[in-house]
Fold this sequence. Notes:
mainly alpha, about 70% helix
Amino acid sequence: xxxxxxxxxxxxxxxxxxxxxxxxxxxxxxxxxxxxxxxxxxxxxxxxxxxxxxxxxxxxxxxxxxxxxxxxxxxxxxxxxxxxxxxxxxxxxxxxxxxxxxxxxxxxxxxxxxxxxxxxxxxxxxxxxxxxxxxxxxxxxxxxxxxxxxxxxxxxxxxxxxxxxxxxxxxxxxxxxxxxxxxxxxxxxx
Length: 190
């Protein structure tokens, strides 16, 4: 049983993060276009962040790959449903743009605000490594070469950064903060 978010973040850093590069390669080869790989990987982390017990996960790598496979299959299924709906709309003469609901926009802004706040807690190097790894998809070796540090430094900073971001993304919003403020509109003092 996980005692807290910190334990989960440590487990993810130790047992999941080392397999991310292999997961990306596997996804590109088997399931999805390169553009979808990042979405699937991030959704894996979101699902892992919701875990309350990892004691029954004997093979974390296999678990990660199974979660990713399920997400990829869900994406495929959704894509085929969307295409059928789009065809139906076009046949009916509707063919309009699909707008996000106000609730989804607020939720996305809240998530972005939490992510920005979590990133602000990192050192400059750790933030840069996190962005190079998670956003740009660079390997540890590429990041180490670009920053002039060892791969061990990159791995340690990436692991610590991921724990901090997971913690920031999964902790509940403090009381008294409105959804509008949580969406990144809160005043920052610098």
